[in-house]
Amino acid sequence: MGLNAQQKKALATQQDDDMGDDEHEHHEPDGDEGPDAEFSDHDGDEENPDAGEDKPTDQEIADHIADGIDKGMVTPKIEALMAAHDPESGVPEWVADEPIWNRALNAVQPNGDGKDEYDDPWLVVGGLYRMLGGELKPNTEIPEMDEGAPDDDGEDGDED
To answer: What is the value of pTM for the model shown?
Structure first.
């Protein structure tokens, strides 16, 4: 089962929200927000609480996120946070919702099947965490992503 048009729009809205101008702001949900509300109803089975008649599975959402990443639709905030994350250190310090983080890990399996299935499985975990409604802890500092990035003239950031 793939994502329907409404779910794809919700994913695009979440990605747009994550790409906002103020990368350091913490947004408190108000209860009726697009994709977080859509994917957070718990009427499925115990193993996959979001498994429902018309709802995509966590794996399907992860696949959709991976497709977006492959097309360059990466949210800078999540990309920076995941680039700074050491997978050996466990749950990142910025994760406010550990059960949702664990759910994303279970769906992607970045150290198992996911490392062969996705080009960047940890980035997929981060994207899925946010799509499932995972929040950042208040005052989370977003790391800079400019090391080795091309300058305006196309040269990399290192000076000779």
So the answer is: 0.63
**Bridge partners of 136?**
95
Residue 60 is assigned to a structural domain of this protein: yes
At 86-100, the pLDDT tens digits run: 999 999 999 999 999
Give the residue from 135, 7, 20 showing the smallest Cα distance to 65. Answer: 7
Within-domain flag for 150:
no
- In the chain, which residues have pLDDT < 70? 1-53, 146-160
* 156 assigned to some structural domain: no
Tokens coding 88: 């050996």
- Assigned domain for 2 exists: yes
Q: Is 154 left (phi over 0), alpha (psi -120 to 50) or beta?
A: left
Query: Mean of the per-residue pLDDT values for the chain?
Result: 75
Whole-angstrom distance, CA of residue 47 vs CA of residue 37: 20
Q: 90 lies in which domain range? A: 1-12+35-40+50-140
Distances in Å between the alpha carbon of 158 and those of 37, 84, 153, 154, 155?
43, 20, 12, 12, 8
